[in-house]
Specification:
seven-stranded parallel β-sheet; Rossmann fold; 12 helices; single chain; 320 residues
Length: 320
């Protein structure tokens, strides 16, 4: 029988137990004391390198990710240090309206890797979180790092403007678009131009590639000069065309970050993660304050004109 002790499960996951790793990720998704205990262990290990793959629905992100797995395992490193023999993928799916669980469409499309011992794929539900990334995803990434995965691919559901949240969770962010993906202004409105480290025009065997590249180039020009200019690559993921070049671009971006920006980017990520946890805890505290006799007493005082909402809230906080 598998243990329910996070300490034992982390040790087993490091030894290669996929069952233990799956249990730890379930703890992370479910919340509660076991989640907190798991996070306490995971955040004391080295963080893996995270590649985020995002873009509008139907851009072919899952097929692209599937093909990238093959290239990653073939190359086996970032071109020097940090060699790896395995890769993990987090697929952030839309939540089921009935169970709250992930629809698992990405895992269906990646079923060719299901029996590969060097690949671990996990679908995670957004659970209604509009950004496409549940609060559990950063913790899940750290759990994978604790299980000795040095590379994590995070593929997110396309949900429009809020999709940019992937940038706060990734070291390298890939934005995938298709030929004919609207004009440059629509691209800018989607918010994806600001977060991309690499652009991929997927399904490049279709008409409209040149126009899409032109639109992206124009928006990059309008964005001003930066130390890193996102390259624009063309792929046809269904035929594995351009995937090797995409990996080369990821390696090049990682080398760029090693000049000191990687630490800066991860510090910014820790700020975002801490802010999220603080927000959750504050909302939980507010929920607790908004119950009970003291709260109802303040509501009565408001109805009677004996106080105002600001004084009532201050008194509830003072008595907490």
């Amino acid at each position: 029988m598998i243990s329910s002790d996070p300490v034992e499960l982390v040790a087993q996951a490091r030894d290669g137990s996929r069952t233990a790793l799956a249990r730890l990720l379930t703890f992370v998704e479910s919340g509660g004391d076991q989640h907190l205990a798991t996070a306490a262990l995971a955040y004391r290990t080295d963080a893996p390198y995270v590649v985020g793959i995002t873009g509008p629905p139907g851009a072919g992100k899952s097929t692209l990710t599937d093909q990238m797995i093959n290239v990653v395992l073939e190359r086996g490193s970032f071109g020097g240090a940090d060699a790896f023999e395995q890769v993990s993928v987090l697929c952030v799916d839309p939540s089921s309206p009935f169970t709250g669980g992930a629809i698992l469409g990405d895992r269906i499309r990646m079923q060719g890797h299901a029996t590969n011992e060097h690949v671990f794929i996990r679908s995670m539900a957004t659970r209604g979180h509009l950004g496409g990334l549940s609060l559990a995803v950063p913790d899940a990434v750290r759990v994978l790092g604790a299980a000795n995965f040095r590379l994590v691919l995070v593929e997110t559901v396309g949900v429009g403007q809020m999709e940019v949240e992937i940038a706060s969770a990734a070291d390298t962010t890939i934005v995938v678009v298709n030929p004919g993906w609207g004009d440059a202004m629509q691209a800018n409105k989607a918010g994806l131009l600001e977060v991309a480290d690499i652009f991929v025009i997927n399904k490049a065997d279709r008409p409209g590639v040149r126009e899409t590249r032109r639109d992206l180039d124009q928006m990059l020009e309008l964005g001003g000069a930066h130390d890193w200019r996102p390259p624009i690559l063309e792929t046809t993921a269904t035929d594995a065309v351009g995937i090797g070049e995409l990996w080369d671009a990821i390696v090049e971006h990682r080398r760029f970050l090693e000049s000191g920006q990687l630490e800066e980017r991860r510090r910014a990520r820790m700020r975002v993660e801490l802010d999220k946890v603080l927000s959750v805890m504050v909302r939980s505290r507010v929920g607790a304050l908004a119950r009970g006799d003291a709260y109802e007493g303040q509501v009565d005082a408001l109805l009677a004109g004996a106080t105002d909402p600001y004084r009532a809230a201050s008194e509830l906080l003072a008595d907490a």
